[in-house]
Amino acid sequence: MAEVNNVAVKPIKKSIIEVFMSGAKKGFYIGVEQILPAMILGYVIIQFLKLTGLIDVLSVVFNPIMGVFGLPGESIVVIISAFFSKAAGAASAANLYGEGVLTAAQCTILVMPCMLMGTLVGHFARIILVANVNPKHRGLMLAVPIIDSIVGMIVMRLILLATGLM
């Protein structure tokens, strides 16, 4: 028993239904407040790049680089989206998959940068700048997740090739 003002207080036990409903409510709000806006951001980024024709330019420019990972040039959009939000990167990959631009295996490779460097812009602003990290270390703090993502995409591609899924 816990004590409040020297008075023993018995903890209130919640029923399984109350715990479930509380979790469902939290999950709903996470979806509405965090995931949905990020998915909309991913969709908006892709539509903006398509309407302006920039997706074609980016595709040509990044095709050789993305080809190293077994990806088409258009997949750079997923990485750009992931810089802003993990969910936006994932949503961009899902949109490109839905349009037939990416395969399931290619989306699997793109999970790596979405998770390893996703939300890099926001994390940098919220953590590195607020914590006042020494300016000479800030470049390294940005580089590490990008390097991790590159290595992760190469490893994932090798795994997919070894298992015959790519």
Note down, in words, how this protein is organized.
This protein has 166 residues and is mainly alpha-helical. The protein has a domain at 54-162. Helices cover 75% and strands 4% of the residues. It is built from seven helices and two strands; from the N terminus they run E-E-H-H-H-H-H-H-H. It has a two-stranded antiparallel sheet. The radius of gyration is 21 Å and the shape is globular. The mean pLDDT is 85.
Summarize the structure.
The protein is mostly helical and 166 residues long. It has helices at 16-52, 54-67, 76-84, 86-98, 104-116, 120-129, 135-162, and strands spanning 2-4, 7-9. The radius of gyration is 21 Å and the shape is globular.
